[in-house]
């Protein structure tokens, strides 16, 4: 009978699954630095079907990340430039309204600044009839409680809340009779608690004013207009 071999077999090396390998590399981020030869021998399939080394793939990923960061920085810089332009334009609007010699100058200055600096096609100031006695200034209307404006914008005069968004042609014509094709508008109260009136801004762009847009610019414009009107009535 053949003699049985007494030589013991070496235990098989434990098999690692991918999850364990990933965990190990995360726990030892310097692994590839200690084994740089792996960077060139490990290959990754490219979408074109050709193989690229791990180091080439890392370079590609770093370039993509760098481009994303560059794009984000450019967006931030552009936003900063836009904010600076808006601030300059608001300052010009304030200076124009303060320096206006009369109510007519206030209305003309508002319309000019809106058109030149904010790409807004039309502007109107409505003042309560008890505060406005002229009735003959272009760009300013007296608000009659029983007039067409009050009836057409009944909800606004009841709530005194900003209305902002698309506007029907008939209502746009009431606000801006000398401006054709107004598709969106914002109507903002002047001195909401005292019901001084309103300022209306209109645009031919149907998306220029939207219901959910920020109201800070509109409120600031209304405050400036209200102050200018009060100083001249």
Automatic annotation (TrEMBL):
Keywords: Coiled coil
Coiled-coil annotated residue ranges, if any: 52-86
Pfam families reported for this sequence: DUF484
Keyword Membrane included in the entry's annotation: no
Superkingdom of this protein's organism: Bacteria
Cited Gene3D superfamilies: 3.30.450.40
Protein name (record): DUF484 family protein
Species assigned in the record: Solimonas terrae
């Amino acid at each position: 009978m053949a003699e049985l071999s007494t030589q013991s077999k070496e235990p098989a090396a434990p098999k690692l699954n991918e999850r364990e390998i990933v965990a190990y590399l995360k726990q030892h981020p310097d692994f590839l630095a200690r084994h740089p030869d792996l960077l060139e021998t490990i290959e990754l399939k490219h979408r074109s079907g050709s193989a690229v080394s791990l180091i080439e793939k890392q370079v590609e990923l770093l370039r993509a990340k760098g481009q994303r960061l560059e794009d984000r920085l450019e967006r931030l810089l552009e936003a900063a430039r836009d904010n600076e332009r808006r601030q300059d334009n608001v300052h010009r609007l304030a200076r124009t309204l303060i320096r206006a010699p009369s109510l007519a100058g206030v209305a003309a200055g508002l319309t000019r600044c809106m058109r030149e600096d904010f790409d807004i096609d039309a502007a109107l100031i409505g003042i309560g009839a008890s505060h406005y006695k002229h009735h003959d200034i272009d760009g300013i209307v007296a608000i009659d409680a029983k007039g067409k404006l009050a009836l057409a914008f009944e909800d606004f005069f009841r709530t005194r809340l900003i209305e902002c968004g698309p506007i029907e042609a008939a209502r746009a014509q009431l606000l801006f009779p000398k401006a054709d094709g107004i598709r969106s508008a914002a109507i903002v109260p002047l001195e909401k608690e005292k019901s001084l009136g309103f300022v209306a801004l209109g645009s031919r762009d149907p998306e220029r004013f939207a219901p959910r847009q920020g109201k800070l610019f509109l409120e600031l414009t209304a405050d400036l207009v209200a102050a200018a009107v009060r100083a001249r009535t």
